[in-house]
Design brief:
The complex is a heterodimer of chains A (433) and B (293).
Chain A: H1 2-40, E1 49-55, H2 61-74, E2 78-84, H3 87-99, E3 106-109, H4 113-118, E4 143-144, E5 147-148, E6 151-152, E7 156-163, H5 164-169, H6 179-191, H7 205-216, H8 221-230, H9 239-253, H10 264-272, E8 278-282, H11 286-292, E9 298-301, H12 309-312, E10 315-318, E11 322-325, H13 332-344, H14 346-355, H15 369-372, H16 374-385, E12 388-389, H17 400-412, H18 418-432
Helix pairs in contact in A: 7-17, 13-14, 17-18
Chain B: H1 2-37, H2 55-62, H3 65-96, H4 103-115, H5 118-139, H6 143-146, H7 153-181, H8 185-193, H9 198-209, H10 211-226, H11 230-235, H12 247-257, H13 261-288
Helix pairs in contact in B: 2-13, 3-7, 3-10, 4-7, 7-10, 8-9, 10-13, 12-13
Chain lengths: 433, 293
């Protein structure tokens, strides 16, 4: 009998532990909800609420933590909880949180297809005070049926980043405007013993940034993507895609190291040590370059695919991420306040330009080229002159970017010839449409 | 008597109850849920879930060549890794049951790679393959350092094999050592007295006696490598051009990167059945050869 009693007690204990776990979760949730209603009624509740922010921009993790300190100082009853997962793993991580009922209040979305995926969870932000200041190219990706669902984080641009000192050393005084001029530049560099490119085919670069080039150079990329989707157009008989192949070959044949074993970090490292004069990358590598080699003179130049100078005279600028608010969040009003603070308060604006070194996507935030760095300043001058093409991969069906990447890898390892490459790219598209 | 029966019931409930409860919460429930999703077109996010019956399975068997090729890749690499890990693990174990002065230290050294997690190991070895080997290659002419290790299909395959074997050997070594030290000395001595050679003792006395260790090791290595994900992810990430994409990775990408949760769970179900079948057959075959003492 005694044994049975202790056994019973044990059992009850186990049950209690299990029940305790779930109970805890519930009460915490209720707590949050009651706090919000307290706030809404205007009463200054002393209890603080927690804003969960899920970030994908690894470059600004440290700065975000400082921002958190400042924001909490200005808003004593709000606690910011910031988590960061790198962009390439972000979508899966977010889905994991969603499935585990741990949805953040503010998270990140890339717009277009991804907006469609998450649309049932996004709060409409059209009536926020900052909306009027958003620059035009930053609106479309996150707009659906006339409603704006996100706040652009920043503008970013990519193209050929070149080392001005090495160009000088090789006697190059003007950046190439056509592919023929690019070939001359490559020859001049190599004559002075400088390798032209550090080409990276291990990772996201060729599939995402590379294939975007011939998409963006189409007269009407949106129309073109529609035709690709309908099957009325393909890549194989598109003149821009055909021209683009010769640029791909130039990049592959004049690389300092085997592109298949060069990943993103290796590429930037090779460039920073002066082993290559040009890399195909974007202004977001500035903080990394500053850490590796502080005294480089840098510029961004267009990516010429043929001899039409006017066509090639652009770099590729877009909004990498939008802050979006979870529609079902219990603290979404505080989340809106936070976003508004970020782009209207002096502190917030200072963080965007001076700390994050972002090119702001708002016309009421001014930047100082000396603070944001060579690359951002260079991108911004293209933006001001209107010499920009868009980022179109968020319009592709989900999964295509990765598939494009592996097709490009196959080409670089001689598993495909030029014609097959264009056919395979189309097959990759059809797999996911 | 009546009370006795009740208390027996109670005991069952107390001792097995919690395990059953947790097992069903953590394993059975998600499994059934997965089975349900495998017959839907859910994308993992939206509130709309449509029932599509067996469309996902049809798609996998009729259209999806990537799944088939990742299955083939996984089978190839599993066979290679299982054979190499077990041969090497047994060999090292056999050496380390001899009376060596340094044997305890050597045992720890061989086991050490297993303590590191697969993810970390993958990143370390990625650095070795990508940066370490190329740097060494610049200073020496040794051909192994000149290869683009993670850049071509064949070398990426062997890269995975090398790291995986290096990691798994220590684990099976420990099991084999336990098995080997349990072989009764008198049996071996008797065999030597009867004039058996070392090799014959190994073949006819030791191997049959450690058959149960072999069952365990084979089961563990097959099961473990078939479900390989972390090493795969951190070392090659499926590349070059998806040639080293394991089944687990294919499933993960389908469900979470391509937003086809239903299709992904259908693949996971097929994978479960396949791995279960393979390991059951293996355990059945090796169990039959075990000697009961």
């Amino acid at each position: 009998m005694k044994r049975m009693k202790s056994a019973l007690i044990l059992m009850v204990l186990v049950l209690l532990v299990i029940a305790g776990c779930s109970q805890n979760g519930n009460s915490a949730g209720n707590q949050g909800a009651s706090d919000v209603s307290g706030d809404k009624s205007g009463e200054n509740s002393k209890e603080s609420i927690t804003l969960k922010l899920f970030n994908s921009k690894t470059e600004i993790v440290d700065q975000l933590n400082e921002l958190k300190r400042d924001y909490e100082k200005e808003n004593p009853n709000v606690k910011l909880q910031i988590d960061t997962v790198i962009g390439t793993d972000y979508a899966s991580a977010l889905k994991g949180r969603f499935a585990g009922n741990e949805m953040p209040d503010i998270f990140v979305n890339t717009g277009y297809t991804e907006m469609e995926t998450w649309i049932d969870h996004l709060e409409d932000l059209s009536n926020e005070p900052w909306v009027q200041n958003v620059v035009d190219i930053a609106r479309e990706p996150i707009t659906k049926d006339g409603l704006l669902y996100g706040m652009p984080m920043n503008l970013e641009g990519y193209g050929f980043i070149y080392n001005k000192d090495l160009f000088e050393q090789a006697g190059i005084h003007e950046i190439p405007k056509t592919i023929t001029e690019l070939e001359t530049v490559i020859n001049k560099l190599e004559e002075s013993g400088i390798k032209a490119f550090a080409t990276s085919y291990q990772g996201i670069i060729p599939g995402r940034f590379g294939v975007n080039v011939p998409f963006a150079l189409q007269g009407d990329p949106v129309q073109f993507i529609q035709e690709i989707n309908d099957g009325t157009a393909n890549f194989a008989d598109n003149p821009i895609f055909q021209d683009w192949l010769s640029l791909i070959d130039l990049e592959l044949n004049h690389s300092v190291q085997n592109p298949m074993t060069t990943d993103y970090n290796t590429q930037v490292t090779l460039f920073s040590s002066g082993d290559a004069a040009i890399i195909f990358n974007g202004n977001w590598i500035q903080p990394m370059l500053n850490n590796l080699n502080d005294n480089m003179n840098l510029g961004i130049m267009p990516v010429p695919i043929n001899d039409d100078a006017a066509l090639n005279n652009h770099i590729f600028v877009g909004v990498p991420n939008f802050w979006v608010i979870n529609k079902n969040s219990e603290v979404k009003d505080q989340a809106k306040q936070f976003l508004n603070w970020l782009v209207t308060s002096e502190t917030g604006k200072r963080y965007i330009t001076e700390e994050f070194k972002f090119i702001p996507a708002f016309d009421n935030i001014e930047t100082n080229p000396e603070i944001v760095g060579d690359l951002a300043a260079s991108v911004q001058s293209y933006v001001i002159e209107g010499k920009t093409y868009g980022w179109h991969w968020p319009r592709y069906p989900i999964g295509v970017v990765q598939e494009f990447g592996s097709v490009m890898q196959k080409y670089s390892s001689d598993h495909l010839n030029k014609d097959q490459l264009l056919v395979e790219l189309k097959n990759a598209w059809d797999k996911f449409k | 008597m009546h009370v006795g029966k009740d208390s027996k019931w109670m005991q069952q409930l107390v001792f097995i109850g919690p395990a059953v409860l947790i097992f069903s919460l953590v394993i059975i429930a998600p499994f059934l849920l997965g089975l349900y999703y495998s017959m839907t077109d859910w994308n993992g996010v939206s509130p709309n879930v449509n029932w599509v019956w067996f469309d996902n399975f049809k798609k996998i068997f009729m259209e999806d060549t990537d799944f088939a090729s990742s299955f083939w890749f996984t089978t190839k690499i599993t066979v290679t890794i299982v054979i190499l890990t077990n041969l090497l693990g047994f060999f090292i174990a056999y050496m380390l049951v001899q009376k060596l002065k340094t044997r305890n230290m050597l045992r720890s050294i061989f086991f050490m790679p297993n303590v590191l997690g697969g993810l970390l190991l993958g990143f370390i070895w990625q650095f070795i393959f990508v940066r370490g080997f190329t740097t060494l290659g610049a200073y020496s002419d040794f051909f192994l350092f000149k290869l683009a290790w993670l850049g071509t299909e064949a070398t990426a395959f062997w890269g995975l094999v090398i790291v995986s074997v290096w990691q798994g050997t220590g684990y099976v070594m420990v099991i084999y050592i336990a098995g080997l030290s349990n072989v009764p000395e008198d049996l071996k001595e008797a065999a030597y007295v009867d004039g058996a050679k070392r090799r014959q003792v190994l073949r006819h006395v030791i191997l049959p006696m450690i058959m149960s260790s072999i069952t365990v090791c084979l089961f563990w290595t097959i099961n473990h490598t078939y479900k390989m994900y972390d090493l795969n992810y951190s070392l090659t990430n499926g590349g070059p051009f998806r040639s080293t994409e394991s089944v687990s990775m294919n499933i993960f990408i389908e469900a979470f990167a391509n937003n086809r949760y239903g299709l992904g769970t259908a693949k996971a179900f097929i994978f479960f059945v396949a791995v279960a079948l393979i390991t059951v057959v293996q355990v059945y075959l090796t169990k039959r050869r075990e000697i009961r003492m």
